Prior knowledge:
The complex is a heterodimer. Chain A is an alpha/beta fold. Chain A has helices at 2-9, 13-19, 24-32, 43-62, 83-95, 116-125, 140-148, 165-178, 197-208, 237-241, 255-258, 265-272, 276-279, 302-305, 313-332, and strands at residues 73-78, 99-104, 130-135, 153-159, 186-190, 212-216, 232-234, 246-249, 287-289. In chain A, helix 4 (43-62) crosses helix 15 (313-332) and helix 8 packs across helix 15. By secondary structure, chain B is of the alpha/beta class. Chain B has 2 domains: 5-55 and 376-433, Urease, subunit C, domain 1 (Roll), CATH 2.30.40; 58-364, TIM Barrel (Alpha-Beta Barrel). Chain B starts with a strand and ends in an 8-residue tail after the last strand. The chains are: A alpha/beta, B alpha/beta.
Amino acid sequence: MTEQTFSTVHLSQKAKELSKLDGLGVQLWRKRRHLLDTDDLSSDELTTALHAAMLCKEMMKSDGPQALLAEKTVANLFYENSTRTRSSFELAAKRLGATVINVDIASSSVAKGETIIDTGRTLTAMGVDALVQRHNCSGAALQIVREFGEDVQVINAGDGWHAHPSQALLDYFTMWEICKELNGAKIAIVGDITHSRVARSNIALLSRLGADIHLAGPPTLLPDDLSKLGVTVHTQIEAAIENARFIMVLRLQLERQQQGLIPSIGEYKRLYRMDHARLKLAADNCKVFHPGPMNRDLEISNSLADDAKHSLVRVQVQNGVAMRMAILYLLLSSR
Amino acid sequence: MTRKILIKNGLLIDTLEQKETKEDLRLADGEIIERGSGLKAAQDEEVIDAHACWVSPGLVDIHTHMRDLAQKDKEDLHSGSKAAAAGGFTTVVAMANTEPVLDSSNTLSLYLQKIASQAVIEVLPVAAVTKGLLGEELTNMVELAQLGAVAFSDDGKPVQNLVVLRRALQYVKMTGKVIISHAEDLNLAGGGCMHEGLMSTKLGLPGITSASETVAVARELEIVRLTESPYHFTHISCAASLDLIRRAQAEGLPVTVDVTPHHLSLTVDSLENYDTKLKMNPPLRTGKDRAALIEAIKDGTISAIATDHAPHSGLEKSRSFTEAPFGITGLETAFSVCYSELVLAKHIDRLKLLTLMTSGPAQVLDLQTPSLRPGARANICIIDPNYQWTYEAEEGYSRAHNSPWDKKELSGKVLCTIFKGQIVFQASQLAGRH
Lengths: 335, 434
């Protein structure tokens, strides 16, 4: 109790505001313990996440690290390389005063016989409060929750092709800053849908908000029964982006060509690259998203990527830290 | 020690004669010696009271993986045969994809020795179609059949090259044995780990299209037409494959089909939680496929139920869904699962179910058909159809615990299994009946 009072005294105005957030959404976030995907987030939780992210973004501008999670330890456990998501979570945790450890394990170097359960068990035994896990297998985060969910809080930082909830939430936050009501808004997601956890988590989140989601990609990169997810599926990018309010461009992994899923990079560029010419088809105030890292001039033209009038790539990165602060705070702060 | 056993008050279900009678059975010297009403117990006889129970010929499973050899961590012939006995089986057919593969007389002889010394029921080995299951060179089929192989199969690594398959089907005629097909086009299956469809799209997992099975069935049927050799399709999972086989059977092609308890009872919708105990190949398909399998049982296209009992260690199954191996155990739960899904659900009657688990599979491979006639081998299973129980894989006999029915409540239970006149399994529930 005294500790709480002591730390509150040293908090900035915005941090105090964050610590005083209350209501059903805050309670639901604390109750959920884990963040695995966007499909089970209630509207109260979404509203709370936006509010918290807004405060965190202001804290980022004016304040140094705040002792909101000073007693917490967060482990970043990345089995797959990811400079930006890992750095984003690391910064977010540090800005909230948490202790952060980074455990980098390239999948290839995990010794045969060692499983993610072993590693999870080790970190849980060390008394880590939260595991931020990225793994190349779909379902890996759920697996950790099933084994250790009672002992450690799990934040899915990307599992295989399945889910990337913090990315979807930061994308939502970025859209919300521009357009408060997404019900009926046309949003296009373009590229390799099959292998994209970003697409899946965004579809799950944005479709619940009533957005009119249009997907476009070559048929070989559109998974089976996609239209049953409540989205409109196109093979021509033009149909998807026509009059779109937002366009999300997905990264194309270069190995898709070697796997025979597309005939050539050249053909892909010709058919799906987002550029200023194609942008003319979209709504006048259309904004373009990319989860990064970009293949410049492959899925997005160099000039569009850097065109701050339309491209929100840099804002996404800033908002990424803010939203991850919000997620960590809402899940880990105890009261 | 030979025991004499009198089974009283049960309902005898003889799947060979296709008859149900309320009679008693007397067993001695490994055989059934008498069948009749109100048999009196002799002094030296053990009496089993089977009132309210069914007395069936011992069950037959023509698709199991008994492992052993270099894979004793998954299962060995003792644990696997004990699990089979607990499930009411007195004969199981063991697949050739052991480590090393059952593709030579040396390995097969060793395996047969192990069976003789360790198995508590009859275990009949299948030999590989091609050396090392590589799909290239044929094994010495005649020699292997003479040694004791009851069928040939490259189950797990199906023959892809149709020239090789054609030669195998021509050559196997000299043995009089059947080739068992795991029908799958490996290119089309392409590294998938579950049925391709809405659920794989939601879960972000690579799918296995139904076409990978149906395409293989279609082309293999044409090789059967060409060679006129008997051919058995195991663990068929798709409606479209059944349509092709049904048509081929109508045309007189010598093809038979079995189905697993899991494809009859579960669908792809149960995969929502990435449970590796639901990962097997062929994968769980849609509700429509499941309905088609049940329909094919009713119309006789499918003549056998086979478990594809595939034990794996807990460590292997604790990997992520994409990395964990295919396969689930099934011997201890097969009867109960099929009883619920087929008989209690009123698709077929009990006689038909037991036929699919005894004479049906035996006839597919031309094995000795089990029966309850005097003079027949005393291979018997006693079932309490009204018994509700909870399966605990850890407390079961299989060394592996990768069962989707672990901790699930099941209806109907095998209480006792008798192999060649010896009790090889009895449930504690039977104790009060002696």
